């Protein structure tokens, strides 16, 4: 079986490649630049948002892919940048898949932020109408909607995994946890105090390696075409707990930490909790890695130790 992973060098993509390799698949990564962790995979250096659909179709079809995973896109500073790297990319990918004489399963990585802010206590299920309010969330919803529209029209076979916030090894530098980890490392290096503003927020977090396992299962699961499937832990965890686990992993002295409350300033509001019942039923999937272990793994890998 062959899988083509788009965005193979990113935080999610590298774990998806590793998961498929562990299951014995022929893995081919696609990204704008190569990376050392892809040495055991096939690789194509390609800017997917700029490439013509025919060029993308060649990568997917020679030899034929059984599964295509879209973990590409990344972050951007403006709505225009995100539209280019996410929506333009997905539209070209849909065109490319339509050119193929066969129909691989497309697994598209969406985001919990597509739902938009909700009242505390809300359980986010897949049939809840999305109401995103930030540019990032709106663009992510547009990309997922483009995939679902094509799937429901019979143009392609696709499933959207709407993933919670992620923790675990090799987080994207723009993420909250990666930024916090960098601040802790700097405070350690200079022997100073660490000032933390911690919002009174609770969010669903899931380890990126659990997400990768969900991707593998979604690639072969029957009766998921045209569906959204939530991937999370189904729990709203206080942000302060994540901060505490990261300080614990770093062995940072508690008497050098100054904490204060802060307003919520993020893409996700102050509450997210995903209903993951559909993932359990259709993918036979459930998260296995505890969040404390996930946060500790993030710190270890950032400092050259095994996860």
TrEMBL record:
Pfam families the UniProt entry points to: Epimerase
SUPFAM superfamilies: NAD(P)-binding Rossmann-fold domains
Protein's name in the database: NAD-dependent epimerase/dehydratase
Limits of the NAD-dependent epimerase/dehydratase domain: 3-232
Signal peptide as annotated in the record: none
Transmembrane segments: none
The organism of origin for this protein: Streptomyces coeruleorubidus
Top-level taxon in the UniProt lineage: Bacteria
Gene3D superfamilies: NAD(P)-binding Rossmann-like Domain
